[in-house]
Amino acid sequence: MEKKNSSLTYSEIYGQADSFAAINAALPAIFATLDKVFAEPYDELIFTGCGTSLYLAQTAAHAWCAYNATPAKAVCCSELYFFPEVYLKGKRVLVLPITRKSYTTEVRMAIDKARTFPGVKSLAITCDKDSEQYNDAYILSPETAEDSVIMTRSFTSMVYLAVIMSMYAGGKRDEIDAMADYPANARRLLVQMDNLARDIIGRHHELNLFITLGQGLYYGVANECMNKMKEMGIANSEAYYSLEYRHGPMSLVDENTLVLTLAHPAALEDDAKLLRQMKSYGAVTAAIGDGVAAAMPDADYTLELGCGYNAQQNAALIGFIGQFLGYYIAEKKNIDADSPRHLTQAIVLDDK
Question: Is residue 282 within a helix (H) or strand (E), and if so which, with residue range?
Fold first, then answer.
């Protein structure tokens, strides 16, 4: 596991299994908090965040709706701050800020303003216990401290938290219990996706456009894969709902393009047709998900998750690939992802 550059980020990527194990150990306390929060009804849930946490919110909102009748949406913190009445006026709303650090300015601004509306309460999904200072309640990923700037284990652990919350509120305790082996599956898939990403980047030196596609709750994960390749590798990367890619963006596809599909079971057949089309235009193609080997035999790379989970349960695992692709793009360019350009752990604004 010794690496030339970005050793801190690389080691933290491999810490994700331990983060999942810590959440599993904390489930009784998490459930107790959720029992209190959901003892009252809400008209809507709003998941909110900035950057990586916004992409996480997109995944969390979809996971919530998969298990619960109360509607939910993802809204970025700045939108919630500037236009709160559009989202909050006259409704009982639970706002769920998602944050690695409690002091991100835009998160604090959005939540402080949101809580001035009657009927609004907040439940933080967080890696920072200090989030309790400005929220009504919080659920915590207890072992996700990151020294690196890039969010890796914090992202996936909060996806895991959000999915568990959705299952618990929806009465699917059996699906939570089925994830007792999550850390073991994570350790296996970390190695497999590490090897896959190294192989893709090592074999295709000409790649200069990286596309990640996903439907359902995998769209938010696809966005985060895009973000990891931008942050770590200073790469031209984009993400789309899978079938949206035909509507204009595919005009950029050539032999220097990687098209990666995070294959949702509901979209598997159509994803296969799309990937086949992109390969005909010269793209290097890859697919991750259950059933991809059989559905996409002509793809250049496939990886089966093989955990026996459903799409929601797999959400925190399937995005490992974006982290490793970002890492190996950075390594190829001799960029140190431990010190990404222009970035800090949290965006803290001043008045100047």
Answer: none
pLDDT tens digits in sequence order for the chain, 352 residues long: 444 566 888 989 999 999 999 999 999 999 999 999 999 999 999 999 999 999 999 999 999 999 999 999 999 999 999 999 999 999 999 999 999 877 678 889 999 999 999 999 999 999 989 888 999 999 999 987 767 768 889 999 999 999 999 999 999 999 999 999 999 999 999 999 999 999 999 999 999 999 999 999 999 999 999 999 999 999 999 999 999 999 999 999 999 999 999 999 999 999 999 999 999 999 999 999 999 999 999 999 999 999 999 999 999 999 999 999 999 999 999 887 666 554 444 444 465 4
**Both structure tokens of 317:** 């695992």
Task: Give me the helix-helix angle, 52-67 and 311-318, nearest 10°.
Answer: 170
What three-state secondary structure class fits 336?
A: coil
The Cα 111–Cα 252 span in angstroms is 39
CA distance 330 to 13: 15
The SS3 assignment for 293 reads helix
Dihedrals φ, ψ of 326, to 5°? -60, -40
The answer to whether 273 and 246 have CB atoms below 8 angstroms apart is no
Name 106's Cβ contacts closer than 8 Å, sequence gap at least 6: 50, 77, 78, 81, 347, 349
Sorted by sequence, the CB contacts under 8 Å of residue 2 that are 6+ apart come out as none
